[in-house]
User: Fold this.
Amino acid sequence: MTRILQGQVVALFAFDLGYEVSLEKMSAMMATTPVQPLSRKKQTPTYLQYTKPPQILHLGLSSGHFSVPGNIQATVFDFGAVSISYRWPLPQGESTLLGDLPRISHNLYHFNLEPHAREQAESLMKKIEPAIVRPKLADLVEDYYLFIIEKLDRPLKADDLMTEFQSTLAQTLRFEITDLSRGQQDEALSQSVSYYTDDLALVDWNAAIIYDRDYEDTASVLELLNVELLEARYIDGQLDKRIGDYGSLARKRLELPIPLRQPYKQAIQDLAELRLESSLLSERVDNALKLVGDLYLARLHRAAAQRFYLQEWDRIISRRLEIISDFYELLTDRVHTVQSQTLEVIIVVLILVELVLAFVGK
Assistant:
């Protein structure tokens, strides 16, 4: 009968808005608040901060889902992404049991908030369009859910919470109201991070549970990671599409070109730009937040990155960039080869003409 005296649920939806967002221009157009620097409550060094703090915009209230309205806000990142978040406080007092979390998570997941979140992203994009470089709202979306427990009606250590409520916590992370098998429970709860004895972060592939009064930094890191996953999928999609386009081009025979002419000039330029932009975007996303060393947030980041398979996405993107580089070299070499052959033919023809003229002149 353990009750949650204070807590909240959060739904996050990440979208790609364009190539880049000028946060300075956007702040001049609308009232924004920078994401707060990481606190030192867990001995986080001051240099482990956002490279360029994202900007937060408040978009209004969300009603009709829980007994109390929730806040909607947008967190805009300079590398062209936005995270639309819905935050509802859990009813305070004696109305929310810890055992209610699976039902709450199940209902939240089936609210189908994605269309509404996309409308919010589209509306925001129109308002800040002058601050966006190459604005275009991508079709991709990445959702993630946080269940934050700030205070219980009785103090519980992290180990005790895991022991007493293993089934409840696993169901919450998987949005299930039916008991999970022991194997599924162990798998859902396999990525856990604690700093003190009475705080806990459980990270799964589509949701996390945070048991901590000072949850802000943990929530911010997970929100950023959700955006990182979106951008990885976006880069992969762009590269995959271009590989298909240029694969068919590379299979075509190149007709004999005029010397110094470049039949693949546009394709070669596009490939070079695509390779550069993809590498730059990946680098900017990876460097958005600097977390190094054996620290709490660094361990949290590693645990979540493993859960999101970000290393696998990086491997796939690296392989696609190698294929793009191969196409670039193939087209460039093909042009150089054919141009060299054409010049050789022309030289031979000129020599023959010279010989003929010399013979006729005699």
User: Anything to note?
Assistant: The radius of gyration is 28 Å. The CA atoms of residues 161 and 316 lie 38 Å apart.
